[in-house]
Amino acid sequence: MIEQELLFDKRIIERNMKRGRLTKAQYAEHLASLKDEADKADEITVEVQEGEFRVEFPDPIEDEE
Could you state, in order of their start, the residue ranges of all structural domains in the chain? Predict the structure, then answer.
């Protein structure tokens, strides 16, 4: 049996479904069980001009203890 971690690995979800290891209903249930952690994400800016790009990251926030 495939390990639980790999069962829901985004890179092989379709393969697992095709091989009958995972159903769409199981996958939907898994997605619904995930916590929304969007507030922990950082925004970045990407500019593309003439085949070159520049990425700007926000300044890191120091953890206050």
Answer: 1-33
Can you tell me the distance from the alpha carbon of 24 to that of 32, in angstroms, rounded to the nearest whole number? 12
pTM beyond 0.70, yes or no: no
CA distance 20 to 2: 11
- Return d(Cα 64, Cα 52) in angstroms, integer: 37
The pLDDT averaged over each successive group of 10 residues in the chain (65 residues) is 81 94 94 93 83 77 60
- Per the listing, tokens 């069980």 go with 33
Distance CA 33, CA 27 (A): 10
